[in-house]
Every structure is written in structure tokens, then in C-alpha cells.
Amino acid sequence: MYPTTLLLLVAPLTTLAHMHLEQPVPFNLAPLRRENAPIILSSQYPCNPTNEPAFLSDTTTPMTVGQKQVLSIGGTVPHGGGSCQLSITTDAIPTPNSAFKVIKSFEGGCPDPTDTTKEFNFEIPAVVPNGEVTLAWSWLAQVTGEFYMNCAPITVSGGAKDASGLEKLPDMLVASKDVTEAECTFTSHDTIFPDPGEVVEKNGDASKAAKPVGAGCGKTFVGKNIGAPKAANSAANSATTAVPAPSGGAGGVFAPGASSAAEAPSPSTSTLTTLIAVTATPSAPESPSSVVGTAPAAVGTGTTTSCPTDGMVVCNGTEQFGLCDHGKAVWQAVAAGTKCQDGKVVKREFRAVRRGRIPRPRFGHSHF
């Protein structure tokens, strides 16, 4: 009788899930649905990787500059809502040194505890360069004063040729005590960001909104890497991730570019190998041979073909693909171990290789 009663008491708790990014599809979505903990240790930054390989995804979401995009948040424990930021780094595999630049801030009502859909609209600005980049969703929970962060791989088309415009955008606010030594706290109110950027959506009760408190709220963070994103012709990505030693201090900071970055502490290094397959939904072909861009595979890399829909993937046989951008696609060779088939770059064979281990915190209870 007692075990049954205990099970009944515990079971409802397992259904509670802290908020997490659902769309665009984030790295390691399945583990995030089980355990999305607040970032309280430096080893969780950036993006709260919950699995090894730490940034595993077989899908990257195509996004065209200027078009309406939908951000979807899952989970059932909104902690009274709060404020969120959407940021971009040109690193296809984020590291503690990645520079996250804010493209939109949501002050209040993010998420809205009364809205079960939990969807938000945004656009990719023209300053974001073309290619594979990472979109970050960061959340400052109102009631608990906790900082959450998830990331998703995306492929941008119709954007800039370089990152010179992106690096002028404000830096993402980082409010985690163990990530830096500077204090920046927020509790029991929606956060008003010190530098929210040009695109700001204000929701919720303005009387419950306030700026975070602490000298660290205006300080800068390591985040020194910003540059050209990975070209869209790579489906297999390897990254060497430098993990700084925990600072042991308290703080909240921004993650800026090289102009204001401090040197990172001596890192320990591990290598992560993961697969990112570019996917899109092209117009339905009449037969496999009618897929857009089915010229002979002898066509050289770098030549172009016409295409109907921006953001779609077109195939030139199985060995080349192109990402449609303003009616044109440039043929590029697929990465080793992949092929282009039916408007998708898919894996021929994939085995996640773990060459090093990044310690991940374990918690006594699950966060989602």
C-alpha cells in the first residue's frame, strides 16, 4: 500500500516540465524535453547542452531574411513568465567564446503563463550573414530569477555577405552566477534589458517590470568569436570546444564580440563530432528525376541554377546541392558521408564519435 501511495504522489511531479525551445528545432531536443535545467554552472554555458555529443542535431531549420518566423516554447512550468532574448552567433557549434548578438527582445510575457500556445513571431534581420549559424533563445524567469538558454542550428539565406553588420548589434544578457564573476540579479519581476536592441516586444504588466540589479549587468563577457558562418555545404560538423574553469563567483553579463572581449582562462579541451543535415520542404516532384537542379553531376561546384522558392534545398544528382537564394542556387559538394536526395541533404551513414567528455551537472530533480 505504501509503495503504491508513494508512486501516486511522485508520478504527477514527473509530468512537470520547465520551459524549453521547441521550434526552431534545437540541439538535443529529446533530452531538453526531459531535463532543461537553469544555467547555474559554467559548464552549462552556452545553450545548456544536455547530452553527448553536446550539440547533436540531424536537422537545421532554413530561414530567409525578412520573412516571418515562429518561435515555439514547450513545457508546463513558466515560473510566472519573464523576459526573453533571441540572439545569433555565427558559430555553427557554439562554444563559451561564441559572441551572441541580439536580434529581438521580449520584455514581459515570455512565456505568457495564460497562453498555452507559447508562440512568438520574429524575423532574421538583413545583417545576419548567409550560411549555417546558431539561434539562441535565452529566458530570465520572473518568479525564480533563473537564467535558461537553448540553441538551434539554422541556415540563413537572403542575408549579408559578412558579419560586419551583425557585430554591431547588442550583446545577449547573461545572468548566471557561475558563468562570470560579476553580479547581475533579477527576481519577482519581468526583466527590462539594459540593451535590448532595436526590435523590442513589450508584454505583461509594465508595473512588474524592472532592470536587473548589479554591477555586472553592464559588463562584458568572453564571447570573442564572431565572423563568417559555416557555408551551407557542410552537413558534418566537428568542433573543438574550450571549456573555461568555473569562476566561482557570482554574476550576470553580456556575451559580446572581439572588440570588448577579455581573454578566456586556460581551457581544457575536448572534441565533439556531430552531424547537421540540411532539410527543407521543396515542391513535390512528379518523380525523383524531376527534382529541381538535376543536371549531370559533372557540373562544377560553384556554378548556379535557377530555383523557385527561397530557402529550399535543390539537388544536382546525389553529390551536389544548392540552397535557393533570390531565385538562384549555387552548386556545392555535399560533405563526406552524406548525399542529396529529394530536396534534402541526408546522411549515408552516421555514428556519433565522442573524443572527449565535457562534465555535465547532475541535479537531484529534473528541470525541463
Kindly summarize this structure in a few lines.
It contains two helices and 22 strands. With 368 residues, it is mainly beta.
SSE layout:
Layout: H1 2-14, E1 20-23, H2 29-34, E2 61-64, E3 68-74, E4 82-89, E5 101-107, E6 119-123, E7 131-141, E8 147-157, E9 172-174, E10 190-191, E11 200-202, E12 209-210, E13 236-243, E14 253-255, E15 268-275, E16 304-306, E17 313-316, E18 320-323, E19 328-330, E20 332-333, E21 338-341, E22 344-347
Which short descriptors sum up this protein?
368 residues; mainly beta; Coagulation Factor XIII, Chain A, domain 1; six-stranded mixed β-sheet; three-stranded antiparallel β-sheet; 2 helices; elongated; disordered N terminus; signal
Radius of gyration: 21 Å
Low-confidence runs (pLDDT<50, min 5 residues)? 1-15, 234-252, 256-299, 349-368
Shape: elongated
Number of strands: 22
Q: Strand order, biggest sheet?
A: 2-8-7-4-5-11
Describe this structure as you would to a colleague.
The relative contact order is 0.17. The protein has 2 domains: 15-275, Coagulation Factor XIII, Chain A, domain 1 (Distorted Sandwich), CATH 2.70.50.70; 288-347, no CATH class. The model is unreliable at 1-15, 234-252, 256-299 and 349-368 (pLDDT under 50). The two termini are 31 Å apart. With 368 residues, the chain is mainly β. It is built from 2 helices and 22 strands. It has helices at 2-14, 29-34, and strands spanning 20-23, 61-64, 68-74, 82-89, 101-107, 119-123, 131-141, 147-157, 172-174, 190-191, 200-202, 209-210, 236-243, 253-255, 268-275, 304-306, 313-316, 320-323, 328-330, 332-333, 338-341, 344-347. The strands form 8 sheets. The protein has a 6-stranded mixed sheet, with no helix packed on it. A 3-stranded antiparallel sheet has the order 1-3-6. It is elongated. A hairpin with a 2-residue loop joins strand 21 and strand 22. Residues 1-17 form the signal peptide. This is Lytic polysaccharide monooxygenase. Keywords: Signal.
